[in-house]
Each structure stands twice: as structure tokens, then as C-alpha cells.
Design brief:
Layout lengths: L2 H19 L3 E9 L3 E9 L2 E11 L12 H18 L7 E10 L6 E5 L4
Parallel strand pairs: 3-4
Antiparallel strand pairs: 1-2, 2-3, 4-5
Protein name: UPF0102 protein TU94_23735
Pfam family, one: UPF0102
Family: Belongs to the UPF0102 family.
């Protein structure tokens, strides 16, 4: 795994831990749909199915991770979520949503993990 892949994996680990700490259940990680793309984390929040996109950046050097999800990426996430639901059965009674988790790793100090619900 290269440095970028390791950074992304670390951010996804932090994100999964944060979701678990807030009472969500992580169902699957890094679900791939052929060449269409990947869902970083699939979780359950009560009776809602949650598809999480995780973006990790080192502090100060790049745009904020939340800025990386543009309309095209949001549309791809919606299509991937639909495929996941088709593959695994119907959506739960609470429906589904797409969340974004941004992880910023400062040069010093603890990572900053932001969770925004219902972005797409």
C-alpha cells in the first residue's frame, strides 16, 4: 500500500470508530461495485441505512476534505448506494442517506473528524 492509500485507510479507521462511538453499526467497509466505484463505509443508524464517503487530508496542505465531494461525486455515491441496496435487499424502514466524514490530520495534535449527515 502506498502512502496515499495508508492515509486513506487511517482516515477510514478513524471514521468507522467515530460512527461506532455515536451508536451506529458499521455493516461493511470498502464495498466495490465493479469499476463503478466504492462505498467507504455502509452503516446502520437506528432504522436508517447510511452510506459514508470518507475524505482524509493532511492539515494545511490541501483543500478541506469536505470540498472534495462535488456534484458529480455525489451523483456517483447515490448510484452506488442504489446498487448496494439492490444487491443486499430492500432499504430499511427509515430509508437511506449519504453522509460525509472529513478527517484532517494536523502536523501536531489529534486528528479532527467531522461528520455531516445527509449530504447527497
Amino acid at each position: 500500500m502506498n502512502a496515499r492509500g495508508a492515509l486513506g485507510r487511517y482516515g477510514e479507521d478513524l471514521a468507522a470508530r467515530r460512527l461506532s462511538e455515536t451508536g451506529m453499526t458499521v455493516l461493511e467497509r470498502n464495498w466495490r461495485c465493479g469499476r463503478t466505484g466504492e462505498i467507504d463505509i455502509v452503516a446502520r443508524d437506528g432504522d436508517v441505512l447510511v452510506f459514508c464517503e470518507v475524505k482524509t487530508r493532511r492539515g494545511g496542505r490541501f483543500e478541506h476534505p469536505m470540498a472534495a465531494v462535488r456534484p458529480e461525486k455525489a451523483e456517483r455515491l447515490r448510484r452506488l448506494a442504489e446498487r448496494w441496496i439492490q444487491t443486499h435487499g430492500a432499504a430499511p424502514p427509515g430509508g437511506a442517506r449519504i453522509d460525509l466524514i472529513g478527517v484532517v490530520l494536523p502536523e501536531r495534535g489529534a486528528p479532527v473528524v467531522e461528520h455531516v449527515r445527509g449530504v447527497a
